[in-house]
Structures are given as C-alpha cells and as structure tokens.
Specification:
Elements (H helix, E strand, L loop, with lengths): L10 H10 L1 H8 L1 H4 L9 E2 L1 H7 L9 E9 L5 E9 L8 H16 L3 E7 L10 E6 L2 E6 L1 E4 L7 H6 L3 H14 L4 H17 L4 H14 L4 H17 L7 H35 L4 H8 L3 H10 L6 H10 L4
Parallel strand pairs: 3-4, 4-7
Antiparallel strand pairs: 1-2, 2-3, 5-6
Helix pairs in contact: 1-9, 7-8, 7-9, 8-9, 8-10, 11-13
Protein name: DUF4351 domain-containing protein
Organism: Nostoc piscinale CENA21
Pfam family, one: DUF4351
Length: about 325
C-alpha cells in the first residue's frame, strides 16, 4: 500500500469507537480496572479538561486520547486516561508523556487518574509500562497499564468467538497491519470482517459503528474499493434483514463527507490560483497543474507562504522545497 492510501486522521475512528463502546473497551482491554467500576452510573468524557492538560500535543504524531470520569463500586469518583498510540514507530519519550499527563491531571484538578495505554505499533519488543528515576535521596516509579494489540495475533480464535465489539476492532487493526502490501488480501479480509457483523446478529446501529471503523482503517486502492462495494452490495441483497441497504447508506454518508472535503479543496485551489496570479502574474500550465495536485494541507501552507512571493521564482522554489511533482 502506498503512502497516499494512509488517512491523515487515523485517530478519528479510534476516538469514535471508544466513545460508542467505552465500557466494552475497558472490559476487553483492562478487565481488572473495569471490575472496580460501577457501570450502572453514567461515565462522562472530559474533553475540555483533557485539552487543558495536553497543551504540548506533538504535530505529526498519531494517537487518540480520552479522559473519562467514572465511579467505583464503593462510590468514589475516579478519572481514567485512555491513550491509544497509533504511530507506526515506537516513541522514545512515551512513558514520560504518560507520567506528565497523569501529574498534570492531579496538579490541575486534584483528581487521581488511572493511566492506561493501548499500543497499536508493530514492534513486539516495545512495551513501555513505567516512568522512573532514582537518586540517593529521591526516587519515583510511575507505572501504567498497557495492552499490545500485536499480542492478540496468538488469540485469533478467541477474537472470532467474542461478542465484544473490540474483538472486531482488534481483528481489523491486525489484518490492516498484516496486509500492508497485499491489497487483494486486505479486500478479502475487509469483506470477511464485515460479513461477520451480520453473522453475529448485531443491531443495525452496531453494524454501522463497526463498519465505519473497519472501512476507515482497511483502506483499499480505488479499483479494489469499487470491487469490494459491488461484492458487498450483492451480499446484502441476499440477506433477509430489515436493514438490507445498510452498506449503501453508509457508503452514501461516507461519499457525502468525502464530497465535502473535495469541494473544500476545489474552492481552496481556485482561491490560491487567483491570489498567485495577482502576486506573480500568469502561471504556466505545468505550474498551475502542480498547484492543483497539492493536498488540502499543502494548499493551506501555500496560502500563507504566497504572501511573501514577489516573482514566479518564489513559487517555483516553494514547490520544489515541498517536493511536488
């Protein structure tokens, strides 16, 4: 699979699925902590509070974080900090960051937080679970819970028989990793995992939620995506269920979102081309094509850079520096 197939906001489906099935996530990944909690009392996502302590978010990193207020069985309030590390490569200061977030929560809100991490990388040797230092008169050991999705490869049969939605999440993640250079195999697994949702007899809402996760992470080239949709449409036509067009409705919703993104990109392109013409004069066709090939993120960067352009050479230098074709 090429880089162009990677979605920029890969944390988004994780955040959505954690919000949709948070108790199940805790019971699946951290059953000992889940057993301490009273799930009959509603939990609360503390997004504003988390933003206050995560003031040094790193650009370019891929992770999803959720700060959640829950209640223990004994009636005491406790906060959970759930971190999903999505980045492909291990992060050197990961344990330190887990400690700092925990410390900031206690410092700012006077609340103890149980810090937990879900590691999605493919390095079996990277297993951070504590931050510590030790001096003759002062020492500290901060431990946090971790699960490694890679470890579930050895428990595939258990995943297949589980009715917890996060079994599906883990299977989709693992098969995405394993088929990074096998798009045909990925297509087969994507179809198989989605078919499993129907075979489990899940409610339409659950099928839609889990479908959205699978579809978002198991990216296919356009040609195979078209084949997949055709196969899936035929599959749904064979079912005798009241929500036989679920796949088509999800596809329609996804298409609307992608259409909005494409529309925004076209508008941005047109605006920047007009601005460039005013700044540096008429653009040669090949230069205009280079600008039109830019991603939305690159276009936004160019919209700021062009304010300093005075000649077409400035634009050409910017395009070359940003490695456009």
């Amino acid at each position: 699979m090429t880089e162009e197939l990677q979605r920029a906001d890969n944390d988004s489906p994780w955040k959505e699925i954690l919000e949709a099935y948070f108790p199940q996530a805790m019971q699946f990944f951290f059953p000992q902590t889940a057993a301490l909690l009273n799930w009959e009392r509603p939990h609360e996502f503390l997004d504003k509070e988390f933003q206050q302590i995560a003031r040094e978010a790193e650009l370019g990193r891929r992770y999803a974080d959720k700060l959640v207020k829950v209640w223990q069985i004994d009636g005491e309030e406790v906060w959970l900090l759930i971190h999903v590390e999505i980045q492909a490569k291990p992060e050197d200061n990961f344990a330190e960051r887990m400690f700092l977030y925990n410390l900031r929560i206690f410092d700012k809100f006077a609340k103890p937080a149980i810090s937990l991490a879900i590691l999605c990388d493919a390095d079996s040797t990277w297993r951070p679970n504590q931050y510590s230092y030790n001096y003759p008169d002062c020492s500290l050991v901060f431990q946090f819970g971790t699960v490694k999705l890679l470890d579930y490869q050895n428990h595939w049969t258990e995943l297949e028989t589980s009715d917890n939605p996060f079994a599906t999440v883990v299977m989709a993640h693992l098969k995405t990793q394993q088929t990074s250079k096998q798009p045909g195999e990925r297509k087969n697994w994507k179809f198989s995992l989605i078919r499993r949702l129907y075979e489990q007899g899940l409610a339409e809402r659950d099928i839609r939620n889990l479908y959205r996760f699978i579809d978002w992470v198991m990216i296919l080239p356009k040609a195979l995506e078209a084949e997949f949709w055709q196969d899936f449409k035929l599959f749904e036509q064979e079912l005798t269920m009241p929500y036989i067009t679920t796949g088509e409705r999800i596809g329609y919703e996804r298409g609307k979102e992608e259409g909005k993104q494409e529309g925004k990109q076209e508008q941005t392109q047109a605006l920047i081309l007009r601005q460039l013409q005013r700044r540096v004069g008429n653009l040669p066709d090949e230069v205009r094509q280079q600008v039109q090939n830019l991603s939305l993120e690159q276009l936004e960067a160019l919209s700021e850079a062009l304010l300093d352009f005075s000649a077409i050479a400035d634009l050409l230098n910017w395009l070359q520096a940003n490695q456009t074709a």
